[in-house]
Structures are given as structure tokens and as C-alpha cells.
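re: ur question from the group chat, yeah i did fold both. here u go
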Amino acid sequence: MLRIRVYGRQAANRDHVSHQSPGDPPGFMMLFSVRMPLIIRKSEVKIMPQQFIEPTRYDFVESLMLERTGFLDSFSVEGRTSGGMNGDKDGIILVQNNQIFITPPLSGGKPARISAVHPVVLKINWKTVTEPTEVTSADHITWEICEKPQYQITVSPDKLKVHFTLYRAEKYAWNLVNCPASFEAAVRAEPNRAMLLSTLTIEQILSSLDNRSILRNLNIPALYAELNNPTYLPVCIAEGRAPLPGKKSRLQLSLPEHTLTGNGMLQGGRTAEAADSLDFLRFPGAPFAREGEVFARKLPPEEGIPGFDVEGGILPPPPPQDIYFAAGDNARLLPNGEIAALRTGRPRICGDSGSVTTCDFPALCLITKEMAATAREIMFAGDIVVPSDIEGPMCIEALGNVYVYGNVCQSTITATGSIYISGQVTGCSLHTGLAGVHQHRLHRFSSLLLTEVGGLREAARLLAKNVESRQQSVKYGLVVMLLLEDKYSHIECLISDLKSALLCMEGTPQPGTDQLKQMLEVFTHPGQFTEFITDSVLNSFFRLLRNLCEDIELLQEEHVFINIARSHNSILESGGELILRDADAETV
């Protein structure tokens, strides 16, 4: 009889086990003398007596696994043996059948090292293992499974929706993956598909919801549909109601009845003569008011409707915005909200989309037939009236409305207000409202120059700083002059265009226009003003350009129209409504 002392897994109440393989000769018996190591099960630790193993135990365990058919195949994860001269004396870890076997090292050996792979959580002496850790039979070790929940319920940040996300409906038991005897082992686990513990039910989901308001508004059919036909995507199962915002204060035009018929100049398909220049402003449907007439009404803000969130809380609506109405010297805001005219003319209402609304009566520029036949460009800070045909080419730009009593050919008309034409437009470009603001030359050139001056100022600051870093001094004006002659040489053309546009502007100039003209002269000849040009001067130039842009933008009217008879081969860009009076009108 051969007696061998080995490491092995046996029942705790047996010290010796005899074994005879089917192929062994009669009377041949293999006797195992075993002292049990530390055995770890889920949430269970058993301390076994320490055993003594001969130095060739690795070789013997390997030969034993090869000899016993099927024993080697039960391992699916390879461990790592210890390297070095004392490998046979090091500790051993074996994972098999949901058990972890640990053998302490012999004299001169090192303790075995153990780690865990998610979702296995190992705890040695009640501390979670986060990296490979040495372990001996004296350590208290437990393991557990920390897996992702079967589902998740989330509430949106605004508390208006509750979403249910299903990750898996079935819950299975977990088994440790077998690992052969090794010095270092990573404990892994996998679900046992043959052992179904439970299946998620709607009752379990409802029991996890402790908010009664959510339960009251719960969409039960949506939950059933997701459980029966999983999409594994967030599903809305409860929803509140967002508050409805109110209406901000605004101005509503309430024009007198005589504005519908207007001046009668379009009757019979021909243009009649006007007895007074103000009669030209009475284009049918165009705003016009006589002294003392009510032409608009300031509507008060309207409160919104409160909502509620999924938790039953009240969601108040945002407070409605009120507007400040600046009536000026030509209009008056009455206590009942009505706005009456203090003079006869065309009321201009600007800034209706903002918090400040202004009302004034712009100046009028009447273009004679002779001027219409010879002029090539007309720019006016107010309303422009052309009582005849425009053969073109002509460019008309108004910080207000444009009225043309006749046909228009090969021309460009830009207005921050509306455009009214009694006849047909052919080969023209018409721009009103916001489009008129952007196409107006004063706004277009000042916007381009504003951007370039901002870049020029930053470039001059960086260049001056670079020179000063070399312990050298330089005049700021010379730096600007060098940049204007090189990188920013194109600014000269923009300055020339803006100067020409300012010279063409008739009527009351915009505030700060005179100072801006002086600045344009300075930067037209920067070599003559090198001592004068500083960073603060560039900043003043930048500010004047920005103010001009903003002043023109404030003249944008909200209630704007393009009102024409017909159009052919023309571009019509309206910031409001487009009216073609003839039924067979063509717009290209």
C-alpha cells in the first residue's frame, strides 16, 4: 500500500480517505491523508487546521488532476503560479464548486495572493479587497455578489417626468468560476442560467415607489408593456404638467377706420394727386393718425396657468413681462391703456419685442419727379415718399417707411419700417423690418468696421506688450499705424464707405454722428495722429461704432409690410407680412 500526504478537498470530519481507481490491480489502494485548509463560501468562513505539504505538492496536484478523468476540465479560469526558487513553498489558492481553498505557505515561502473581478466583492478581515492581497488561513474572508439592479427609476431634473429603465427581468444565482491551484488567483463569478431565483413583477416595482403622488399618476400599461416586451430604454411612467406661461405686455395697433381706405389715390388703377404731403402717408392700410385719435392700445400682461410636478408640488408660471412705453412728445398714454396722437402723421412704434417700446412721428422726405429721374441714391432718417415711377437704377434707404406711387424698376429699397408701392416691381430688391436693418448701409458698414476695430485694438495691445517684454519702448500710435498699413490695411476701404454713407444721410443725424465723423478722419490719416492715438482712443472709436449699430437696430419696427401690386424677377425680404394686391401677381 502506498501512503501519500497531499492537499485536497474532503469532508471536515475525515482525516484519511482511501481510493481505488477502476484500472488499479486488486488490492492496490491509494490512501490520502488530509488536513483541511481554509474553506470559504458565500457569507461563510470556516477555519480548518493547518496542513503540512511536501515541497513537490505542485507537481503532485498537477499529476492528480491529469490522472482523474474530468477533474481538470472543471476549471475554466487559469491562475498564476509563483515564480522564483521558492515557488513550491508559497501558499496556494484553489477555487472549485463555489468554494475557495487556501493553503498557507511553508517555511521560506510567500502567502498566496487573491483578488476579485466584478461583480465579486471580496472582504479580508472586513475590508474590501481592491487589489491583489496576500491571504493566509488566519484571515477572515467573505465574498458576495454586487450586481447591477434589475431596473432603475429616475426623475427628470425639472420633476416633470419619471422614467423606468429595465436592465433585466430575470434574477439568477451566481457561481464562482473554478480556478486551479495557484499562487495568485482572481476570483470570478458567472450567473447560473439553470437556477432562476425570481422574475421581476409589477408588484415589486410598485412596492419600491413610496411616493403616493407618483403612484397616483403612474402609467401602469407602459410598465406592463416594457416588462412583457423589453426595449431596455427609458420609458416614461409618470408625467406632471408644465406651467403655461402668460402673455407679456404688448402694443396692439387699433387704427382708425379711415386708414383702410387711405387717401384714395389707388382708386381706378391710377395714382391721383395729393393736396398735402401728409396725404401721401395715407396709403390704404398703412398706419396714420390725426391729432387726438387713438391709434394703439397697451395691453396689460396676462398671468399664466400653474402646473404640477410628479411629486404633487405646484409649479408657478413665470411672471409675465411688462414693457415700458416711451410716448415722447407726439403721443400720450391714457389711463385706460389707449395711446392717442398729439399731432397728425404716421406713428412709428419701435422695440415692441423688447422691454422698452418707443413711439414717435418720423420726419418726411418728399422726392420730386425731377429728383426721382436723376438721383441714384437717397438715404433719409425718416419716411420717404416718391410720388412717381422709378425707372432705376436707384438705391433708396429709409430709417422708416418708403411710399412709392408708381412702378419701380431695377432698384433697391431698404426700410427699417414698411414699403408701400402702388404699382409693379421689376428686377428689384426690397427689404423691410429686421432685413432692412441689416441691409442698411450705415448698419452694414459700421458692423463690419466694428469687428475690424476690435481686432485692431487686440493686435495693437499684443504687439505693444511683446515690444515692452524686450525692455524696449514704442509709441502706441506707431503700432496702430503699422498695423493699419499691413495686416489691417483693408480698414481704410471700410472707413471710406462709412464716411460716404454718413454724407449721404439726410435728416436728423443719429446721436454721436459728429464725433464718429471726427474719429473716421483720424484713422483715415493715422500717421498724422500718432501722438493722439492711444488705447482709450481706439476704445472710444469702437464704442461710437457700436452705438451707431444699436441706434439703427432700435429703429426696427415690428408691424411691417411689403405691400405691392405685382412683382416680377425681384427679391422680396419682409420682416413681417407680404401683401400682393393683384390676384394674378407673380413673385420671383
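okk and heres the other one u asked abt
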Amino acid sequence: MLNLPTTGISTNGNSFTVAVDPADVPDRYIGPHGLVSLEMEIYDPTSNGYAWTAQSVRLVGQRTARSASARHWANPITSTQTGTTRALTSLPPHIKVHLGKAAKGVKAALVSPRADTCRTTKIGQNDAWATIGEGYPAAPGYGTKRGTAWMTHSNGSEVTYGAAVTTNGTKWSASGSASVANTKGFDFQWDADTNPNISYRAEARYYKYKYDCGGVIINRKVKAVSETGGVKTVHVKANPPYWLSRTKCTFDMPAGTWTKTTGKAYSNAGGVKFDSVIGIDLSTSRAKVQQYYNRIQEEL
């Protein structure tokens, strides 16, 4: 953990804006593709309200560039791994946080803490399966044979996994996220069968941390740090999305391989199957989803 200057924090009503100078972040805190994981605490002594959140950002341009305009932070979802933005502008990430009741003793610990008394300690880790994409080889009711579908999870591709926090050690709340790059590429593929929906899943490794100041536990949090390399596909009993129906699209396509690429980021509010660990599932999101199909003409 690296403490950053608080001079970059400004407020406007219920909004907090955090500006971090890339020069304040040493190279050892910058991950693959320029990813940096930021964490922020908010404490309101008047209401004894407390919140913690996390967000990954990407450093675009060289950190040592002389011109400030030559380097800036970008949202990993709206910027490529090489640093170029997918849109004309890449807006900073925007996170909604909720101030809950702070734990007993937090006010005294945070209002005037000694810098050397606050520490973050790793207290455990858990691996969890997370849905990072979905495929629909065929819509139901369109013939008896189904095509195949697949997705490539390339080496170095990134997934954003939800994070969570608890102030009392028992009740967890989703808050923020962390983007990680995988180190083992894999092609998901399966044969034709009667299941119209498939979920692509990767295994994410989460670390659990304890944050305390002067012996007072401020929070416990879980955050994704990597992928384990484990992958699998799971049959899902659910209807395909609306865009796959004939009322939405015209499936007058020949047999063979075709693709559908969504213009929006893929997201799944309950993508990380973490309920057995903290009582809630967490989110997953990717910058772009491309689905491949080998359609069978007689279905259409």
C-alpha cells in the first residue's frame, strides 16, 4: 500500500473527485498494461459514516513524459491495453459509494491517527469462479440441431472483478472493483447440444485484507489480484437475450462461422460466485465481448 497526497481530493456536495499525479506512483505499483489499483476511504465524523472503495485505472503514455498532456489516467473499460482510447475521450471512472455506520472506535482512530499506526494486513485468500462471457449457440424452438459457439480469453486480456468491504466482520457490501490481466490464454469451445445458453468462466484469486489503525479494525476487504488459469464452461437454464430472437434480428445467414460483437462492455452483476465466502456474489465486466458461432442453416 502506498499513501498518496490528499491534496488531490476535492468535494462538491456528495461527490468526491480524486486526482492522482502519475509522477506520485512509483513503477513498482504499476501493473501490466499500465494498470494501477487505487483505494479510497471516506469518513464523515458528524454522522460517523464510513465507506471504502477501489478502482483500477490505466496509465496512458509514459510516466516520465515531460508534458503533462502526454500522460493521463484512463478507465480500463474504455481504453485499450496499449493505452489508446476506444472513444474520442476516455472519461475517468465514476463510482457510487454508500456511507455505512463506522465500527466502534473508528472516529478516534481516523480523526487524528498517527501515520505509523495504520496498516493493511493480508489475512487470507479464496479462489472463485467468475462468469466473464456468455454464448448462445441457438435460440430455442428453431430446429432440433444446434451449432457450436466459442470465445477466446487471450493471454493478457483483462477482466474487472468486483470488490467488497465489511466494517463489522460479518455483513459484506459490494464496493468498487479491481482489473487484472490474465497470464494464460484459453479458447472456450463446446460441441453442439440441446443447451441454448453457455457461461464462460475463469477462476479469480481474491485476497482478504484487514485494515486497522492503532489496534482498531477499520475494515476487512476482499479484492481480486489475479486469475489462477482455471477455466470452464457451464450450461445455463435461461432464455437467450432479446437480441437473439427473430423479432429483434433477421437470421437469414448461411451455414458457417459468423460473429456478433457488442458495442458495449460486458457486465454481470453476480458474475463472481462468492456467496459461500462472504454471503454475496460480486460483479464482472469486460471491455468488449465477441461471440463466435457456427450456425446450422436448417435451424434458421
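fwiw on the second one: The longest strand covers residues 216-235. The helical segments are 106-111, 275-278. idk if thats what u expected
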